[in-house]
Amino acid sequence: MQKLARAGLLVALIAAWQVASIGGLPSYLLSPAEIAKEFFTALGSQELYVHAGTSLMRSLPGFLIGSALGIAFGLAAGVSRGFDQTFSPAIFMTYPVPKIVLLPLFMLWFGIGDLSKILIIALACFYPTFINAFYGAKSTRTILVWSALNMGAGRARVFRRIVLPSALPQIFAGLRVSLALSFIVMFATEMINSRSGLGHLIQAAESSLRFDLMYVSLLTIAILGYAGDRLLRLARSHALRWQEAST
Amino acid sequence: MKYLKPMLLIAGVLLLWELAAQSGLWNRLLFPSLVRIGAEFGALAFSAEGLMQAWVSLYRALGGFALAAAVGVFLGMLMGRSPFVAGLLDPLFSGTYAVPKLALFPIFIFVFGIGSLSKVALIFLECLYPIVIMTYHGARDVNRVLLWSAQNMGASRAEILRRVVVPAAAPFIFAGFRVALPVAMIVVVITEMISSADGLGYLVIYTLSSLQTDRMLAVVVAISLVGLALDRALVVLRNRLVYWEKLDAYYV
C-alpha cells in the first residue's frame, strides 16, 4: 500500500498523459495505452528479441571487461603505492574526457563491427569502477590492517579478508554507474553506426516515421536498464549482508 | 620531480604512439603522427571556424548544465527539506535513474526540432539526475543540532535555509555538479555525432567520413581539453565557494 502511494506521481503522470491523448496529441506522441498495445504486439514478433539480444551482446561484454579491469586496477592502485603513482594520475586526468569521441578512432582500428563498440563500452565502464574501487581500498581503516598483521595474517589474507570487504560497498556504487553508462554508450554507438540493435531500431523507426516502433524500442531499453539496475542491487544486498546486519 | 613522475605514463604512451606512427608498419590514416595532429590542432584552434564549432558545443553543454543546475538544486533542496515532496519525487527519480535518457533523443528531435534546443533539453535531463539526487542527500542530512541551535537563537526559516542548510549541502551540490559536467560533455558530443550540422561532435564525424584522421584526432584532443578545462574550472570555483571544507579526494 505504501509502495502504491509512493508510485502515485508516476501513475498520475501516465493517467494525465492518457487523458490528454483523448483531446488529440501530435502524431509523434502516442498515448500510454497505444504504446502498451504496440509493445505487446512487438513481444509476439521475433524482431524485437533479435535487436535486444544484439544490443545486450554488445553492452554486457563491454560492461564485464571494463568493470573487471577497473576493479582490478583500482584495488591494485589502492593497495600499492608504486602502482598508484604510475597509473592514477593518467587515469584521473583523462576521467572528465568523454570517451565516446574515441569511437571513430576505434572504428578505424578495430572495424565497424561489434569489437569497436564492445571496446568503447569497456573503456567507458573502466573509469567509474576504477575510481570507486580505488577510493574503496583507500578507505580501509588502518587499525584493522594493523590488527590483522599483528595477529599473523599474511598480505594475501589481509587483502582478501580486510581490504576487499571494506572496498565492496564503493565497488558496487561504481558498478551501478558503469552499468548505466554501458547502456548509454551502447545506445549511442548503435545510433551513430550500426545495422542492428535497439539504437539502430530507434534510429530507423525515426527516419521512417514509425512512431510505434520508436516507442517500443524506447520502452525495451528502459525496461532493460531498470532490470539491470535491480539485479545489481539484489547482488549488492546479497554480497553486503554482513553490513546490513552490523548496522 | 614530484610532478614529473605522474607524467611518465602519459609521456610513454605518447612516445609509443609516435614510434608506431613513424615505423610505417601501419597506414598513416590509422596512426597519424603527433606532429600532424599538433599542426591540425593549431590550425583548428586559430581559425574562426574551429572556434565557432567549439563555441557551439560549449554553449549547448553549458546551457543544458546551467538549466539542470538551477532546477536540480531547487528540486533537491525542496526534497531534502520536505518529506512530502521527497515521497512524491524520489520514486520518480530513483525509478528512472538507470534508464538511458539518450533513448528519448529521437522524440526530442520531433518535439524541439533538430537545432540546439533538442540537444540542450537532453543535456538538461541527463544532468538533472545526479544534481537532484546529490542535493537531496545533502539537504536531508543536515546536522540536526545546527538546525535546532539556529531555531533556538531565533533564526527565521529563510535565514536557516540561507545560513545553515545551503552551506551544509554545498559540498554535496558541488559533488553532483562534478558528476553532471562530464555528462553534459558526453551528451553534447553524442547528440552532435548523431544528428547535427555544427559543433565539435559533428566535426569528428565529418572529418572521419572524409578520412582526415589527423584532423579528427585534433578535434578529439580539443574535446578532451574542453572537458578537462571545465572540470578544473569547477574545482576552482568549488574551492572558492566551499572554502571551509577541503575537497576529499586524492588526485584533484
Structural write-up:
The complex is a heterodimer of chains A (247) and B (252). With 247 residues, chain A is mainly α. Chain A has a single domain, classed as MetI-like (MetI-like fold, Orthogonal Bundle), CATH 1.10.3720. Helix content of chain A is 83%, strand content 0%. Chain B has one domain: MetI-like (MetI-like fold, Orthogonal Bundle), CATH 1.10.3720.10. The mean pLDDT of chain B is 87. Chain B is mainly alpha-helical and 252 residues long. In chain B, 40% of the residues are buried. In chain B, helix 5 crosses helix 6 and helix 7 crosses helix 8. Chains A and B meet through helix 2, helix 5, helix 6, helix 7 and helix 9 of A and helix 1, helix 4, helix 5, helix 8 and helix 9 of B.
What is the assembly state of the chains in this entry?
heterodimer
Q: What is the total tally of β strands of chain B?
A: 0
> If interface size is counted as residues with C-beta under 8 Å from the partner's C-beta, which chains form the largest one?
A-B, 58 and 56 residues
Rounded to an integer, what's the Rg of chain A over CA atoms? 22 Å
Comma- or semicolon-separated keywords:
heterodimer; A: 247 residues; mainly alpha; MetI-like fold; globular; B: 252 residues
In short:
The complex is a heterodimer of chains A (247) and B (252). With 247 residues, chain A is an all-alpha fold. Chain A contains twelve helices and no strands.
Write the layout of secondary structure elements.
The complex is a heterodimer of chains A (247) and B (252).
Chain A lengths: L1 H5 L1 H15 L9 H13 L2 H33 L1 H14 L8 H8 L3 H25 L3 H9 L4 H38 L5 H10 L3 H29 L1 H6 L1
Helix pairs in contact in A: 3-11, 4-5, 4-7, 4-9, 4-10, 6-7, 7-9, 8-9, 9-10, 9-11, 10-11
Chain B lengths: L6 H17 L10 H12 L2 H34 L1 H13 L9 H8 L3 H25 L3 H9 L4 H38 L5 H10 L3 H29 L11
